[in-house]
Design a protein that fits this description.
Two copies of one chain form a homodimer. Chain A has 679 residues and is an alpha/beta fold. Helices cover 29% and strands 24% of the residues of chain A. Chain A has 16 helices and 29 strands. Chain A starts with 9 loop residues before the first helix and ends in a 6-residue tail after the last strand. Residues 1-14 of chain A have low confidence and may be disordered. Chains A and B meet through helix 2, strand 1, helix 3, helix 4 and helix 12 of A and helix 2, strand 1, helix 3, helix 4 and helix 12 of B.
Chain lengths: 679, 679
């Protein structure tokens, strides 16, 4: 040790020990891990949260897969998408193509409902690289003797690693090369290129992480819902409705053009602390209670309220609905009445207070004393999770494949993620609608973790800028990859103030907005009658069906059944409405007129919608007909069909004037028919 | 079997078998995995490629960590960042705060160089939730007897799980509650709140993935480089320069204000196929060859070219540079001359052609017959990787901690990712500059996988819109998190045409642009002499030092040494220039005048730069002085210092006129000194 050196102090040693030098073994392990992925496959798109959740599509769609793919050096690379359906062991392979700037594109068609997984593989294409270099040298007049040897070696290498069939093809190719006068020409021929692009050696094959896409059946993305309370279908407020009464109502719902008929819970209703009419704390002896207070001595979530009928009656209803082109959707509401059998059978699924009483639902200082919530953790895990899953499977076995889920944001997110996958693995056609009205990120998370459809903020969007902002977010940002809003114009819980004050013109405007802006939309019965009688000062219905049996006059004057039927027919006849993200807002120089186009990606279905948001006044506006969407100049002409009046006309030039009288019609819908240029 | 039932057909069975129902065990495993993460922690920001790569910062920075954190229900949640330096076992904890809309923010300070890892933990805060509910009930006048029992239970639960010290505090708290006249008030007191926020029970603790941030020493983000060829420093083209000649040049470089002195390779140079002057294929007997043809019988990458000196000479040079405030940077160029010892020692590291000859470097039809490339896979893995790592560690042991890496994009990316981490684990202060001029995504990937700094497209950006677009991308998009460009105004390989044609005004303009737009910038010697003699028609230097020894007159008339010294001084004196992303372009109504502000986040250092991009004509423009950045109205006054002329003046109002005469000064730099309002 020289005089300038000192033994390191204890403190310095302690400090240096904080940087533990990796052992040769550790270094080598990391080296081998990293070396495995020589080719970069990054920026895979579309994806949700780094691939944590499946993209959503419907059967019949093709999924495009984009990625940046790059490698050191100048070698030519190849890439392919490997994909399979959840139930298939083997992978299918679709080649990818380089687009530009190291961006590649591939994809595959979704033919079966269910979860699909896919990954990208990329490799260095040795023969293509050799070929490009050899060609350049030959073109530059350089000798290629050694290159020919190298090229032939690549064919041999392919042959040595090939299956029996391919061995034969590659042996033939080798014989051809050896017999050729110009071996270089034979190696560089298009035939050799083709064979070697399929069978040639792939070096440094690198595989990306695996991603998922869920293919729902088309109804997941396009459906019109009609909600009613079965017990209110007898035609008399004095008689509890039955499933047979609902069967009698099916032609009405069918004629309105709906696809889905949705019922609030149909299970036995608790008696203890039952709510009375208008949500009063004391129920009268004949009050039926809220169907959301689920469970009574007759049974819980897997039972039917006796006054509605039997399981046989229910089976007849499901079949009759199907005959009318309607599918039944049921409510899945996890809370229990105080009389639910689970409370006795599984006290460990519930919260108990220090005084030994059960913890009823509350949101302090509000109390919901007629219901109790299960908890999902502690002793409830995993049995409660399985029990709830089995409730859903039970109703699927009884012919129901659509579930509207009540308040999912108050139950653990992992539960939904698990339960929905559990069900859809067995029944890929199952649909879950999340009834969450809560904070935006919770709404989005529920959609990401598996809910097929989502309630939305539609009911609280009223002005033109609000609609443009909200629909732009829904249709033009990442959330279109996983969130499918279902625009309900009203619900038993929401009697929005604009309907209370806007009258019939407002009902018609909101109907058009819901039906044309969203793939999925719905109304709760009474909407078509322009019913909006509120609990004074609140956005709730007076004499709500939630707490009593009602009878309605379905032919009530001023009803808008014609509009409903018309809108549902137009939706079905024009593909544009099935393409939720095919939405563009256009200029209408009037803040009360919302004006937008709906279109398919191929632009072969193109519809313009004009809505007067002001229910009280005639509004007019100059509007721009989007000739540019078809590559037409501003002075061009285009054919149009008024889908409401069923008239055909020609629009000359870009700017036109539209006038919408709320009393006459607060909306207009035009189909554009651009003349296809001769081929 | 009823008459309506049939045994399923074989096909139907096969189909159903494709959906294998998960076993109870599989379902339960997935349930338990998902259940563990009850709380959502998502959209963690900043991050690079989903967290695949460390963010880049320098010591002294604080890193902000943002995330969306949410949970089912209405419980109050808590969150914290857990972080540690690479060499420390224990985690430090910094609480996070809710900002808005489920967005949380936390962070920590980077005090030591090296890799740091961090994760977010979130939990349901049972006591805070209890407290909020109990308070609301009390305020609503409801009885809270049972709540008091529940609150006390939470304190007990905390006590039961606490460390000895905390047990004492919690026992005291329990005693206090029990002794209180109003137990509810004691439980709801601020003191109890504080204690329980620290020690109270955390439910459903959920931890995010782990992310990384690398803290470089500050020189990684802020440095001025001067490049020279040691062999050209003798003052005579007839005598090979030595390290001692370089030592004699240190005062010159120091006076120019540079921080880093960078040399192309200093290793023995091959003789076989040596390149002659001006890259000719035949070298004369006295031609020194290209320093990039590394390796000769005297040694390879761990040897010094004998004519430059010995390792002792090198050690003196390193020490002398340090005394002059300069740090030596070396070139790390992996290619070998045909005389490199490795070719005989490790033939398995090289490619051999079918005719038995070594595969020299080529990019068909171009051939680089004086050098050969190693390959990194096959038999070269892992020994070559370790050998190359050890070359870097060897030079670090000789006092070099900055490496300019030649053509990294032609070597496997996993090698760099592995090698840089290997070195920086041992030497967190090591800096690697990627000399890649290639496609944008490759440039970015090199930065992501660990290169400290990157060569850039600066040399090919010439017009105002080009600068605005490129600098906006570099400073305002995600790549600012990982890419630190080093703006070289010229290099031995690049004699850009704008310098060839723009003369002295262009040299001055390019100097200002490089020095003020980038944290790191550099020049290759001769730039300060306005040297731009090209190989005719090419962006290369005539009589390039790459192939011959040159001697320069450092006092050559027309030199811009004063500008260089001034710019380096201004950069050092104003913090704004250390904040690469603190850049905003402002309005100057003239397409030839580029006008921008540089600023610190706190705006306590704020400098405006005006550059005339036209070397031939006087250009003037109205410009907007950004009073709004300081919250000042358009008619306000602000103090300014002209940092070039060292004058102080007052700017009255927003719009001013600037006039830049290329012959006089093609640039102006003003510091703004807003009057701080009285506190």
């Amino acid at each position: 040790m020289s005089p300038n050196q000192r033994a390191p102090s204890r403190r310095a040693r302690a400090k240096s020990e904080e940087f533990p030098t990796p052992t040769r073994q550790q270094s080598e392990r990391r080296l081998n891990e990293l070396a495995r992925a020589r080719i970069v496959i990054e920026e895979i798109w579309p994806r949700i949260d780094c691939g944590a959740f499946p993209l959503k599509r419907v059967t019949g769609d093709a999924i495009a897969v984009w990625a940046d793919i790059l490698c050191d050096g100048h070698e030519i690379i190849g890439a392919a998408v490997h994909w399979r359906h959840q139930g298939t062991r083997s992978w299918s392979i679709m080649p990818m193509r380089h687009v530009d700037n190291d961006r590649w594109r591939g994809g595959f068609a979704l033919e079966r409902a269910g979860l699909h997984e896919y990954a990208i593989e990329a490799w260095r294409d040795l023969f293509a690289t050799w070929r490009a270099g050899c060609l350049k040298k030959r073109q530059a007049g350089q000798p290629v003797d050694v290159e020919v040897l190298a090229g032939r070696e690549l064919v041999e290498r392919a042959r040595d690693g090939a299956s029996r069939t391919n061995t034969r093809a590659l042996d033939a190719l080798l014989a051809e090369i050896d017999a050729a006068d110009d071996a270089a020409a034979a190696l560089l021929s298009p035939g050799t290129e083709e064979t070697m692009s399929r069978l040639g050696p792939k070096a440094d094959v690198t595989r990306s992480a695996t991603f998922e896409v869920y293919a729902d059946r088309p109804a997941a993305a396009f459906s019109a819902w009609y909600e009613l309370m079965p017990r209110s279908q007898s035609g008399s407020a004095d008689r509890h409705g039955t499933f047979d009464d609902v069967i009698a109502r099916l032609p009405y719902v069918r004629d309105l053009g709906f696809d889905v008929l949705y019922f609030p819970p149909i299970h036995p209703i608790g008696r203890t602390k039952r709510k009375g009419r208008n949500n009063s704390l004391e129920a009268g002896p004949d009050d039926p209670g809220s169907p959301y207070a689920i469970g009574a001595p007759e049974g819980g979530h897997d039972a039917i309220h006796p006054e509605l009928g039997t399981f046989d009656d229910f089976a007849r209803l499901v079949a009759a609905a199907q005959e009318h082109g309607l599918e039944i959707a049921l409510d899945f509401a996890i809370q229990c009445s105080l009389d639910h059998p689970w409370i006795k059978e599984h006290p460990e699924w519930f919260d108990w207070r220090p005084d030994g009483t059960i913890q009823y639902a509350e949101n302090p200082p509000k109390k919901y004393e007629d219901i109790v919530n299960v908890h999902f953790y502690g002793e409830a895990l995993p049995d409660l999770w399985f029990a709830l899953r089995d409730v859903v499977l039970f109703w699927i076995a009884h012919g129901v494949k659509i579930f509207r889920v009540d308040n999912p944001h108050t139950k653990p997110l992992p539960f939904w993620q698990w339960m929905i996958r559990e069900v859809q693995t067995r029944h890929p056609e199952a649909i879950f609608l999340a009834e969450a009205f809560t904070r935006p990120k919770m709404m989005k998370r529920l959609a990401k973790i598996g809910f097929t459809q989502s309630y939305s903020y539609f009911t609280w969007r009223e002005t033109k800028p609000e609609f443009i902002e909200y629909l732009t977010e829904l249709t033009q940002t990442e959330c279109r990859e996983y969130m499918r809003p279902n625009f309900f114009a009203n619900t038993p819980d929401i009697n929005p103030h604009h309907l209370q004050t806007g009258g019939r013109p407002m009902f018609r405007a909101r109907l058009v907005l819901a039906a044309t802006l969203a793939g999925n939309y719905g109304i709760y019965n009474g909407f078509e009658l322009c019913e909006a009688e509120p609990v004074p000062g609140r956005e709730e219905y007076l004499d709500s069906e939630k707490y009593e049996i009602r009878a309605w006059d379905w032919d009530r004057p001023g009803n808008i059944r014609d509009d409903v039927a018309l809108l549902n027919r137009i939706r079905h006849e024009h593909q544009a409405f099935r393409n939720f993200s095919g939405l563009r807002f256009y200029n209408a120089w009037n803040d009360h007129i919302l004006y937008y186009g709906k279109m398919t990606p191929a632009m072969d279905s193109f519809v313009l919608v004009f809505v007067n948001l002001d229910p009280h006044n005639v509004q007019g506006a100059d509007v721009e007909v989007p000739l540019w969407e078809f590559g037409l100049p501003d002075h061009a002409s285009i054919e149009a069909v008024d889908l409401v009046r069923d008239t055909r006309f020609t629009l000359n030039g870009k700017v036109h004037h539209i006038r919408l009288d709320p009393d006459e019609s607060p909306y207009a819908i035009w189909q554009l028919l651009p003349r296809r240029s001769a081929p």
